[in-house]
Design a protein that fits this description.
Elements (H helix, E strand, L loop, with lengths): L2 H18 L12 E12 L2 E4 L6 E3 L4 E15 L6 E17 L6 E20 L15 E17 L3 E16 L9 E5 L5 E5 L3 E17 L6 E23 L2 E14 L1
Antiparallel strand pairs: 1-2, 1-3, 1-13, 4-5, 5-6, 6-7, 7-8, 8-9, 10-11, 11-12, 12-13
Length: 268
């Protein structure tokens, strides 16, 4: 028997012995989760502006069970050093964020992140508003988002040593989008349970994606005469109930890029 084959058999025996003796081969600190109600970031003219993480809770030391409740939130941030100032205003009520991890239970581990919002209004507009006579030159707002009864979740289940199941979910009671970036005579509306990565609206400046899910995976390959090929194992999942991506949108004469995330959850 070749030395390489003997080495493979020895490794298999060591792994089996470890499992039978109750020794976990995965680090307990591998589990982590994040839930954030709202966050936005923008860049223009070399400036970067962010709302900060609104209603966020996170942990990476399993086991954990961390809920957070925010009854009311209001914040405005200026995007450009102009006057009037292009300003993003966020108002939200009933923010509930929760993360949970069981830690390692014999040969399994589960992690869950939930984000829920009773209602929120997010507006991108000039502050102070332009005179009524200028409404045709400066149609306002640039973007307005109204959301009621939104929830998002990410769950990640692991069976050691290498079987994983990532799951994401989104539910939207009511969503309405309007403004000059939408460029529609009637507001855009949605309610329900969107499919994964559902693109609600898209033009050159704006993309609105519902239930956006990003799964990070590890690809491991073996080589040699008895190679088993490559195996892909999911390592984490991110779910954004609403993702609004802005690309070089003309706002007050300047190109602005960035994104707004509503109902952001992450689990690994």
């Amino acid at each position: 028997m070749k030395n390489s084959q003997i080495l493979i058999y020895r490794i298999k025996l060591i792994l089996l012995s470890s499992l039978l003796s109750g020794i976990s081969l995965a680090p307990a600190e591998a589990a982590s989760a994040t839930a954030t109600a709202i966050f936005g970031n923008f860049s223009s003219e070399g400036l970067t502006t962010t709302t900060g993480l609104i209603g966020t809770v996170q942990n990476s030391s399993a086991p954990f069970n961390n809920p957070k409740y925010l009854a009311h939130f209001n914040k405005s941030v200026g995007l450009l050093p102009h006057y009037p100032t292009p300003t993003l205003t966020v108002t939200a009520n009933g923010i509930r964020s929760k993360i949970f991890s069981s830690g390692i239970q014999i040969d399994t581990a589960s992690t869950l992140a939930d984000s829920a919002i009773d209602n929120t209004v997010i507006s991108l507009a000039l502050n102070p508003p332009p005179p009524t006579k200028s409404a045709q030159l400066y149609p306002q707002p640039f973007l307005q988002i109204t959301v009621n009864r939104l929830s998002s979740s990410s769950s990640f289940n692991r069976v050691f040593p290498n079987f994983t199941t990532p799951t994401g979910d989104t539910n939207i009671g009511f969503l309405q989008l309007s403004g000059s970036l939408i460029n529609s005579k009637t507001p855009l509306q949605y309610k329900g349970h969107p499919s994964k990565d559902y693109v609600l609206f898209q033009n050159q400046q704006l993309t609105v994606t519902l239930n956006r899910q990003l799964i990070a995976a590890l690809v491991s390959c073996t080589v040699g005469p008895s190679s088993g090929g490559c195996q892909t194992t999911a390592e984490s999942i991110t779910t954004d109930a609403i993702n609004i991506s802005i690309t070089n949108a003309e706002i007050d004469g300047q190109a602005v890029s960035g994104e707004i995330n509503i109902g952001h959850t992450f689990a690994e």
